[in-house]
């Protein structure tokens, strides 16, 4: 697996981040999936709490959104992307390895 992208496009019509990888693979990652799988510490903590007690109701802070949208995308060094979503969330650092893995998992599902 080569987690190095050759091109990254935010496609608002498809509602996905489309990544062309240097090995020829192309991955389309829906905005909602990227928001749901945010790798930041806060989101990981929330997923851990939900998994530990699935009957617990999670209260959201901030505006509730039904469809995630990406308002800004920035590179983090040469290894990751930082995405800003329409709910203001912007703390996730999405490594290229994580994005490649997420795309492969989504394709198998």
Quick overview:
The chain is of the alpha+beta class and 109 residues long.
Considering the chains and any ligands shown, give keywords for the structure:
globular, three-stranded antiparallel β-sheet, 28% helix, 6 strands, alpha+beta, 3 helices
Structure description:
With 109 residues, the protein is of the alpha+beta class. It has a single domain (5-50, 67-108), classed as NE0471 N-terminal domain-like (2-Layer Sandwich). 28% of the residues lie in helices and 31% in strands. It is built from 3 helices and 6 strands. It has helices at 31-36, 41-52, 96-108; strands spanning 5-11, 16-21, 26-30, 70-76, 80-85, 93-95. The strands form 2 sheets. The protein has a 3-stranded antiparallel sheet with strand order 1-2-3. Strand 4 (70-76) and strand 5 (80-85) form a beta hairpin. It is globular. It starts with a strand and ends with a helix. The mean pLDDT is 88.
The CATH topology name reads NE0471 N-terminal domain-like
What structural class do helix, strand and pairing data support? alpha+beta
Using the coordinates above, name the CATH class. Answer: Alpha Beta
Shape: globular
Number of helices: 3
Q: Would you list the SSEs in sequence order as H and E? A: EEEHHEEEH
Strand arrangement across the biggest beta sheet: 1-2-3
Number of strands: 6
